[in-house]
Design a protein that fits this description.
Elements lengths: L4 E2 L21 E8 L9 H6 L2 H7 L1 E7 L2 E6 L5 H8 L5 E6 L2 H11 L8 H9 L14 H16 L2 E8 L3 E8 L2 E9 L2 H12 L11 E9 L2 E12 L2 E10 L14 H11 L4 E6 L6 H12 L6 E5 L10 E4 L8 H9 L5 E4 L5 H12 L3 E6 L4 H10 L4 H7 E13 L4 E4 L3 H10 L7 E4 L10 E12 L2 H8 L4 H10 L5 H10 L5 H7 L34
Parallel strand pairs: 1-9, 2-5, 4-5, 12-16, 12-17, 13-14, 13-15, 15-16
Antiparallel strand pairs: 3-4, 6-7, 6-11, 7-8, 9-10, 10-11, 17-20, 18-19
Helix pairs in contact: 2-3, 6-7, 10-11, 11-13, 12-16, 13-15, 15-16
This protein binds zinc ion.
The site of zinc ion has 9 residues, from loops.
GO molecular function, one term: ATP hydrolysis activity
Keywords: ATP-binding, Nucleotide-binding
InterPro entries: P-loop_NTPase, T2SS/T4SS_dom, T2SS_E_N_sf, T2SS_GspE_N
Length: 558
């Protein structure tokens, strides 16, 4: 595998501050040292123009305002000598220095010093040069502006916490969109003629065939952005308007979450802990793509991992490197599938096995068998909730009595977007929204909260996501119901009677605590009383159906 390349996005990338802060001034630095809550502050354009992006980023400070020769800045680390020197070099007579949370300063830098924008000089240049007659040759790939454009698109995507980048020719223009917190947003519009060059550049980076423009291709490359190692998977395809490219970004340096940090309510977490510390059996995480299943599985692995256990995984792809585990990755060219990888693992004396996903009979059968022969098996499955996950195994041809005896716990989960704290405001809901909320079973409430949209959340009103969980223990009673092929809603009722807090109830609590909105919950959490829909049956209600799956090939949860 190739080493990660550092994406040089610097030249001309200083967002509207060409030639700023080159060390002309010697300002009097005054430490006022008040703590500034940055989420509701907006730096003035004059202040931003005072400091070049790369200097502000290197020394982690953000200019807020400048007037009459006096600048106000916030610094993440007030004692940083380099930062103090850089601040003192600003071209003003006096700088009043305050402090702010480091993560907030970094977020502020990402938000206010954008390197991908329609006002950008380079983007304007692309438009100016665009003419319908321009034909693209392979040689154009080496053109520096394209290389820089690609680097900047990837860098800004990472700074915006995007999971995917979509590059799509449409009728008359090339659209660039980021997927942030599960939702796509447009970040750039380019001339259609840039498309072939841009896609060719990506193909070069990902070792793909640049001559082949019609057949879909897959590739990957490593990149380094702001010191973070990124694994970028590229998938190209052709639409009627031309070739599209979808990039999936995986930050290999992001930290592993502990079980305690997943946001499970105490009661749910206690129930889950009691299940995962069993010596054998199968634990399955269910939900649609992008529901955070992988994060839960890794946190679980971190919780149960001990030196005396042989932990083995088969994944597609390996998303976190787990030093203490033996991790394998799916490789279709080498015939390593979930099923064949699992067989290999079983020959190597494992105690704990993580199978990235169960989606076929063969894998399901081996996983069930392994859990019945003294191994703890963890996996994920595409199912709407905990109850449906049990029946997904039956759908995949596993005998109900094997499902009942092998599964010990099933987690149902979703991610809902968190209301942006920078632009959150209260409002009185409509009657329809109130009755939707009441249907969830939330506590009485008259005022709700929603985000109006600001630059911190790119106008969406949401920033970050929160998980919604339900944890079902597969008790003897639940097992008997499955063996008797009882209707799924009855299995569900039995689980609730045994203390399972359904996702619906958890979601209502998030709304009650002003963390998310009723609309967001209805869009993401499957709510109807009986959630299991057999594959042969017609779906009755689409209102509360989960979002359609995105980018099927090679996709994984965050
Ligand atoms: Zn906002």
């Amino acid at each position: 595998m190739r080493r990660g390349r550092a994406l040089d996005a610097a030249p001309g990338a200083g967002a509207g501050a060409p030639g700023a802060a080159t060390g002309v001034g010697t300002a009097l630095l005054v430490d006022l040292d008040e703590f500034v809550e940055l989420s509701r502050r907006r730096p003035t354009p004059e202040a931003l123009a005072l400091v070049a992006a790369d200097i502000a980023r290197e020394h982690r400070f953000l200019p807020l305002s400048v007037a009459d020769g006096i600048a106000v800045v916030v610094a993440a680390d007030p004692s940083d000598v380099g930062a103090r020197a850089a601040i003192a070099r600003l071209a003003v007579t006096r700088v009043e220095r305050h402090r702010a949370d480091r993560a907030d300063v970094e977020h502020g830098l990402n938000v206010h010093y954008r390197i991908v924008s329609a006002d950008d000089e380079q983007v304007r240049q692309f438009w100016a040069e665009a003419s319908p007659q321009t034909s693209t040759t392979v040689a154009a790939v080496a053109d520096a502006p394209i290389i820089q454009l690609v680097n900047r698109i990837i860098t800004q995507a990472h700074r915006d916490r995007s999971s995917d980048i979509h590059i799509e020719p449409t009728d008359g223009r090339l659209r660039v969109r980021y997927r942030v917190d599960g939702a796509l947003r447009e970040v750039l519009s380019l001339p259609l003629t840039v498309g072939p060059e841009l896609v060719s550049r990506l193909k070069v980076m990902a070792d793909m065939d640049i001559v082949e423009r019609r057949r879909p291709q897959d590739g990957q490359f490593q990149a380094t952005v702001d010191g973070h190692g990124l694994d970028v998977r590229v998938a190209t395809g052709a639409t009627i308007w031309g070739e599209t490219a979808v990039l999936r970004l995986l930050d290999k340096s992001r930290s592993l979450k502990a079980l305690a940090d997943l946001g499970m309510p105490d009661e749910t977490r206690a129930r889950y802990l009691s299940i995962i510390h069993r010596p054998y059996g199968m634990i399955v995480c269910s939900g649609p793509t992008g529901a955070g299943k992988t994060t839960t599985l890794y946190a679980t692995l971190a919780e149960i991992n001990r030196d005396e256990l042989n932990v083995m995984t088969i994944e597609d792809p390996v998303e976190y490197v787990f030093p203490a585990a033996n991790q394998m990755q799916i490789n279709l060219q080498a015939d390593i599938t979930f099923a064949s990888g699992l067989k290999t693992i079983l020959r190597q004396d494992p105690d704990v096995i993580l199978v990235g996903e169960i989606r076929d009979h063969e894998t399901a059968r081996i996983a069930v068998q392994s859990s019945l022969t003294g191994h703890l098996v963890m996996s994920s499955i595409h199912a709407t909730d905990a109850t449906s996950a049990l029946y997904r195994f039956v759908d995949m041809g596993i005998e109900p009595f094997l499902v009942a005896t092998s599964l010990v716990g099933v987690v149902g989960q979703r991610l809902v977007r968190r209301v942006c704290t920078s632009c959150a405001d209260t409002y009185v809901p409509s009657d329809a929204e109130m009755s939707d909320y009441a249907a969830l079973g939330g506590p009485t409430k008259t005022e709700f909260v929603r985000g109006g949209g600001c630059e911190h959340c790119a106008g969406t009103g949401f920033r970050g996501r929160i998980a919604v969980y339900e944890v079902m223990e597969v008790t003897e009673e639940i097992g008997q119901l499955v063996v008797a092929r009882t209707a799924p809603h009855e299995v569900r009722e039995a689980a609730v009677a045994q203390g399972m807090r359904p996702m619906r109830v958890e979601a209502a609590h998030l709304i009650a605590n002003n963390l998310t909105t009723s609309d967001e919950v209805h869009r993401n959490v499957f709510i109807a009383g009986s959630t299991y829909v057999p594959e042969t049956a017609t779906r009755k209600s689409t209102r509360h159906a989960p979002k359609p799956l995105k980018v099927p090939k090679g996709t994984k949860d965050q």
